[in-house]
Design a protein that fits this description.
- This protein is 42% helix and 22% strand.
- The chain is of the alpha+beta class.
- It has a five-stranded antiparallel β-sheet with strand order 1-2-3-4-5, covered by helices on one side.
- The longest helix is centred in the N-terminal third of the chain and has 26 residues.
- The mean pLDDT is 94.
Length: 125
């Protein structure tokens, strides 16, 4: 992972690509869950078998790798939660986006994590 720090505008500029990666994870995650259930239950699935299962896992790993290369922290895949390292004044924060949110509008102090989430103040960092 890089030691990149994002400005709010830099993070927001990446949102279209971030959303595409999130959508890929969500689709692969749903197919993976359905296929794993079928395999555990001894059922056949229109989604395929073990090779397809491995393919869905690989797609999720690929998307996680994309976030890492960008310097974006991925905190979870169900639901997808990503953090952009940033500074708010002199405070280290994470700009955070949760799967399904319409915009990048939240942050939390780095040491507090998701529980310390707050709306971004004013027009930006």
């Amino acid at each position: 992972m890089t030691d990149r720090t994002f400005t709010l505008s830099e993070a927001r500029a990446l949102i279209p690509e971030v959303r595409a990666q999130i959508e890929a994870i969500v689709a692969a995650r749903a197919n993976l869950a359905e296929l794993m259930f079928a395999q555990r239950s001894g059922l056949t699935s229109h989604l395929g078998g073990k090779p397809e299962l491995k393919g869905y896992e690989a797609r999720i790993d690929e998307a996680i790798g994309w976030f890492t290369i960008q310097g974006i922290e991925i905190k979870g895949v169900a639901p997808v939660l990503v953090d952009f390292p940033a500074m708010l004044g002199r405070q280290s924060v994470r700009l955070c986006l949760l799967e399904g949110e319409p915009e990048l509008g939240w942050y939390h102090r780095t040491e507090l994590g998701f529980a310390g989430r707050r709306r971004l103040p004013g027009p930006g960092l």
